[in-house]
Design goal:
With about 70 residues, the protein is mainly alpha-helical. It contains three helices and no strands. Helix 1 (about 10-35) packs antiparallel against helix 3 (about 50-70).
């Protein structure tokens, strides 16, 4: 295998796709936050709503799997 994965083109492509995946994830999170009747971040962080935290974690994993599958091809 060697150092084929360290070629500048492949490395740059990986960084671009990683950033694109993070941006798409955050956009999906913001959209879902706007669609819910309450502020997700306030409920999870300030009010420590663990049940909602688990639901958001599952949603986040689902979005990440979808984005990864779309980017992978």
């Amino acid at each position: 295998m060697g150092f084929e994965a360290l070629k500048p083109g492949l490395l740059l492509g990986s960084v671009v796709y990683a950033l694109l995946g993070v941006i798409i994830f955050w956009l999906c999170f913001i959209i879902i936050d706007k669609l819910t009747p309450y502020n997700l971040w306030e409920e999870i962080v300030e009010k420590q709503n663990r049940a909602l935290g688990m639901v958001v974690a599952a949603m986040s994993l689902g979005i990440c799997i979808i984005v990864a599958a779309a980017i992978h091809g």
